[in-house]
């Protein structure tokens, strides 16, 4: 009986031992599991990482520091040399207020300048197919300017002078072509002026573009919204590589400048090259191309109708 009991215990112990995995088998199972998991993860590890994850020179800087760096990199040409992916990463790294801080700082360096531009607008619901081509001599403070409409554009030959120290609400000018023989004082927001533009003469100049964006930024902040551009894109405009910054705004005019506003920067000059605006229905309401700007120091004759180079 005792022998049978011992035999039964031995058989039970042997069965129990068979049910327990041997140490070697446990190690082999763990090794195979590790190899299997590593093989699954290997394709993901091999995927190239997005360019933006490498970081940019703008990361960790304050808005003021970013604006200063942006100014230096544009002046040196460093920013324009970046490939598209790195350029967009740098632009998107800007703090919400950095772009406008940069623009305002740069415009403060241009108290007086001469510039050339083309302008198209939607007037009374109709898009003007032929842009106006203009040369403008501009002084910001006090606000004084001379503008001439150039050949090849609408209203060619027209001239105006505005001097807020003389008459703040009027400009002096004449029409182009056969009607250019008489110069007269014209109300800034009168019928003649409004027939040609939705803007007054005081809206000319780069400073106006910046002030318009600053006004919208204040409205966005007051509403608890970000003032940062909605998106940045690399575009080709007139054969030139540019960065297009687009703001999609909560509403159109008059609450905001327009429902959508876009500025194009050529990364070589400290002023916008193209400004475009759309209404709530998606219609383009204006497009202004700034072709060239030269910093100047004007004497009094630049804003005097008696200047012999003018035809008043």
TrEMBL record:
Q: Which InterPro entries match?
A: DUF1571
GO molecular function term, any single one: helicase activity
This protein's UniProt keywords: ATP-binding, Helicase, Hydrolase, Membrane, Nucleotide-binding, Transmembrane, Transmembrane helix
Q: Which residue windows are transmembrane per the record?
A: 27-46
Designated name of the protein: Superfamily I DNA and RNA helicase
**What is the source species?**
Cupriavidus basilensis
